[in-house]
């Protein structure tokens, strides 16, 4: 979703901020723009709908865009179409200030009316433009720049991460946040502002994560953070612990493919140092909960969105089975508005790769306000969800750039499976289960690798379905959420309509769609319900449906009913989703790639959804 990058220092800001927003392309956007104060301290704004390359092409000579202070933005349209006029930065009537903004100004209509009554003229359909006019309004009244921004933000309802520059204060940049992430990067005699560290990591790893309702005033030499009501804030500098190479595609054509192939390592990183062979259990220190507290949990609610929600569903199957604790899995967007029931000893687990998803964040705040203990399962260290939870587990998957989540999903479910064992072992789960789980989990990375080695085979199967209009994914038990995830991957990046269904439920509706053109991708590993799912697949075959089956190595009879089979190695039932999802990720990737689509930045989607 929208991205912000700002620079103030001795270097030319333009290439730095343009390069910065390019690093944020993965988040999803539909227009972009920059504002700089040039050598003559004149404010210049350049913006363009479409890709950043369009913006670059439209820029005048480097000399004309030279300046030591600048802000840039990638916009993912919410209010108003993705046109050049609606792109950020926005300015007021006199073209003296420029504002970039992530988030939503909920009372923008009321504010706009008041400003228009004072003579302000609006040119865009965005909520952001109101911020520019509002700041201008307070400047015209004679307020000092930072005071004008502060006054304006006091009147705003909604969420914002903003950066503002002003040609009458050419050595100052102001940034503030409420509900949208904003980070200050500290270099040597230079500073950066961004909504995502990926944009500035090549320049500095020293950062300060602004908290909600904080404002930072930066000049070339130093900065000061205060709250919006002007209380001094002591800055906490953090060191970003990841490397530039993680935001490079390397030998791969797309980030998504790279990330799929990273899974033997990323899953290994999720469990490394957390398996305790001697006690046949796992250790998740970040939970900050004693054995007594873990034993006292009576109910779990998992809140998440998108792929993380699918991970949560797998968590439900595993935790209910191993720990015998009832688990509800809820869409965060629904949970936040439906007055959820939180009884004593309810544990709420929020799952979010980015740690910034607006609905997940709001849902966890709702649960917190009702007194629940909240845990987070996140990937991004220092993210808002990671900071607002009582405890949690980092999945350590490394930066995930592809909009369609892959490695974060397998790492999330690895953690949930380990949580299931931990919660089970403090109850009645026998040590034999714990030790075979640990033994098998250690083998998972190499088993994932053996599936990745079938990449060419999976690509051939992708060719056979690439022109389909629809696809149906079937699974049972914990492979039902895997079917949902497989279908989501396909629709996200290939734009083929796909649905996931519990295999037995198919006959209550989707079976009507099955004919010789309909690919049905079924997950049928060797487990207790194998025979049941085979019966469901016979129903597909009887209607001439095209069956592509994920089956366990050695299951030769499956070939009698399907068009293609992708074999996965044997593993414990609890761990199966870690293997069954891999061929589905590759299948979706190859279908989208064969269709010539932009796999890493699918249309309309955003990596981190920071609006409701
Ligand atoms: C967006 C992304 C999905 C992701 C979902 C939840 O829709 O495109 O890939 O699963 O947000 O994101 P989160 O960061 O909270 O896991």
Instruction: State the helical fraction.
Output: 25-40%
Number of strands: 25
- Principal-axes shape call: globular
- Give the N-terminus to C-terminus distance in angstroms: 12 Å
Structural class: alpha/beta
Instruction: Trace the largest sheet across and list its strands.
Output: 3-2-4-1-9-8-10-13
Please indicate the percent range of residues in DSSP E strands (runs of 2 or more): 15-25%
What does this structure look like?
The protein has 612 residues and is an alpha/beta fold. The protein has 18 helices and 25 strands. The strands form 5 sheets. The protein has an 8-stranded antiparallel sheet, with helices on one face. Helix 3 packs across helix 4 (129-140), helix 7 packs parallel to helix 13 and helix 15 crosses helix 18 (577-594). The chain is globular and about 80 Å long. The mean pLDDT is 94. The structure holds 6-O-phosphono-alpha-D-glucopyranose (G6P). Residues 305-308, 352-354, 357, 360, 403-405, 605-609 line the site of 6-O-phosphono-alpha-D-glucopyranose.
Which terms would index this structure?
612 residues, alpha/beta, globular, binds 6-O-phosphono-alpha-D-glucopyranose
Topology, pairings included?
Layout (H helix, E strand, L loop, with lengths): L2 E6 L4 H11 L7 E7 L5 E7 L2 H7 L10 E7 L21 E6 L5 H10 L11 H12 L4 H10 L5 E7 L6 E6 L4 E4 L4 E4 L11 E4 L4 E5 L4 E5 L10 E2 L15 H7 L1 H9 L3 E2 L4 E2 L8 H5 L3 E6 L1 H18 L3 E5 H4 L10 E7 L5 H12 L3 E6 L5 H5 L2 E4 L12 H19 L5 H22 L2 H11 L4 E6 L3 H16 L2 E6 L16 E6 L5 H13 L3 E7 L11 E5 L8 H18 L18
Helix pairs in contact: 3-4, 4-5, 7-13, 7-14, 9-13, 9-16, 14-18, 15-18, 16-18
Bound molecules: 6-O-phosphono-alpha-D-glucopyranose (G6P).
């Amino acid at each position: 979703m929208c991205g912000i990058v700002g620079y103030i220092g001795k270097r030319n800001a333009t290439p730095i901020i343009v390069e910065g927003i390019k690093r944020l392309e993965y988040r999803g956007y539909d227009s972009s723009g920059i504002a700089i104060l040039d050598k003559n301290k004149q404010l210049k704004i350049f913006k363009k709908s479409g890709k950043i390359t369009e913006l670059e092409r439209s820029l005048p000579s480097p000399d004309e865009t030279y300046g030591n202070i600048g802000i840039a933005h990638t916009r993912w349209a919410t209010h108003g179409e993705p046109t050049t006029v609606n792109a950020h930065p926005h300015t007021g009537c006199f073209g003296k200030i420029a504002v970039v903004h992530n988030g939503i100004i909920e009372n923008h209509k009321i504010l706009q009316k008041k400003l228009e009554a004072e003579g302000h003229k609006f040119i865009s359909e965005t909520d952001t433009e109101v911020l520019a006019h509002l700041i201008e309004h307070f400047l015209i009244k004679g307020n000092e720049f930072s005071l004008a921004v502060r006054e304006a933000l006091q009147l705003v309802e909604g969420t914002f991460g903003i950066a503002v520059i002003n040609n009458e204060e050419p050595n100052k940049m102001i940034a503030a946040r409420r509900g949208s992430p904003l980070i200050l990067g500290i270099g040597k005699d230079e500073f950066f502002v961004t909504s995502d560290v990926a944009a500035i990591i090549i320049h500095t790893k020293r950062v300060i994560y602004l908290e909600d309702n904080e404002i930072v005033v930066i000049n070339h030499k130093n900065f000061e953070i205060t709250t919006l009501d002007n209380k001094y804030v002591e800055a906490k500098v953090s060191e970003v612990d990841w490397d530039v190479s993680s935001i490079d595609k390397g030998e791969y054509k797309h980030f998504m493919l790279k990330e799929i192939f990273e899974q033997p390592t990323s899953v290994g990183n999720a469990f490394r140092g957390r398996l305790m062979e001697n006690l046949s259990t796992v250790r998740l220190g970040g939970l900050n909960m004693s054995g007594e507290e873990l034993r006292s949990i009576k109910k779990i609610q998992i809140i998440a969105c998108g792929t993380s929600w699918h991970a949560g569903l797998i968590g439900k199957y595993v935790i209910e089975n191993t720990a015998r604790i009832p688990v509800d899995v809820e869409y965060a967007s629904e949970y936040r508005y439906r007055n959820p029931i939180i009884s004593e000893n309810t544990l709420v687990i929020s799952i979010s790769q980015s740690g910034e998803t607006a609905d997940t964040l709001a849902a966890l705040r709702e649960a917190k306000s009702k007194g629940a203990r909240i845990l987070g399962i996140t990937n991004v260290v220092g993210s808002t969800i990671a900071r607002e939870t009582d405890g949690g587990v980092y999945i350590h998957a490394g930066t995930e750039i592809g909009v369609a989540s892959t490695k974060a999903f397998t790492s999330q479910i690895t953690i949930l499976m380990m949580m299931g064992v931990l919660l089970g072992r403090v109850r009645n789960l026998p040590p034999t289960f714990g030790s075979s789980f640990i033994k098998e989990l250690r083998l998972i990375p190499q088993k994932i690798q053996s599936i990745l080695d079938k990449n060419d085979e999976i690509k051939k199967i992708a060719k056979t379905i690439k022109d389909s209009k629809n696809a149906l994914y079937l699974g049972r038990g914990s492979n039902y959420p895997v079917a949902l995830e497989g279908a989501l991957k396909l629709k996200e990046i290939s734009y083929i309509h796909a649905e996931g269904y519990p295999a037995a439920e198919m006959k209550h509706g989707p079976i009507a769609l099955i004919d010789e053109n309909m690919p049905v991708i079924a997950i049928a590993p060797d487990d207790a319900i194998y025979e049941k799912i085979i019966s469901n697949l016979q129903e597909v075959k009887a209607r001439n449906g095209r069956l592509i089956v994920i089956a366990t190595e050695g299951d030769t009879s499956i070939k009698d009913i399907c068009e293609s089979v992708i074999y996965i190695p044997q593993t414990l039932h609890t761990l199966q989703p870690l293997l069954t999802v891999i061929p589905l990720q590759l299948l979706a990737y190859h279908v989208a790639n064969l269709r010539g689509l932009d796999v890493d930045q699918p249309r309309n989607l955003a990596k981190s959804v920071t609006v409701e």
